[in-house]
Amino acid sequence: QVQLVESGGGLVQAGGSLRLSCAASGRTFNSYNIGWFRQAPGKEREFVASITWSGGSTAYADSAKGRFSISRHSAKNTVYLQMNSLKPEDTAVYYCAGRVPGVDKYNYWGQGTQVTVSS
């Protein structure tokens, strides 16, 4: 069982940066692939970025490429999402989620953190 808690959201002007954190409890955290997702008001949840359990492979949505960077610090049981050059369309609730390698479904979700980008 893994419990995930996001933090680091807030209000930022367009062009600014934020770093989101996904802190996990549970001894098996480092065996999970972790993804970041977001959901804007009135829209479906969408994939943002992911990182494998080893940190050796990452993936990004087209909207995040070149601006966002995902990383993990295994000793701290934490995954980060560094977001630069933020745009108003990045405004959403951001969630981190965990899944077992080889399984498509993310089974563990955090409660989300709000990111608001003003123009």
Summarize the structure.
By secondary structure, the chain is an all-beta fold.
Secondary structure layout plus pairing:
Blueprint: E1 3-7, E2 10-13, E3 18-25, E4 33-39, E5 46-51, E6 58-60, E7 68-73, E8 78-83, E9 92-99, E10 108-109, E11 113-118
Parallel strand pairs: 2-11
Antiparallel strand pairs: 1-3, 3-8, 4-5, 4-9, 5-6, 7-8, 9-10, 9-11
Structure description:
The chain starts with a strand and ends with a strand. By secondary structure, the protein is mostly beta strands. It is built from no helices and eleven strands. Strands 2, 4, 5, 6, 9, 10 and 11 form a seven-stranded mixed beta sheet that branches. Strands 1-3-8-7 form a four-stranded antiparallel beta sheet, with no helix packed on it. The mean pLDDT is 94. The radius of gyration is 13 Å and the shape is globular.
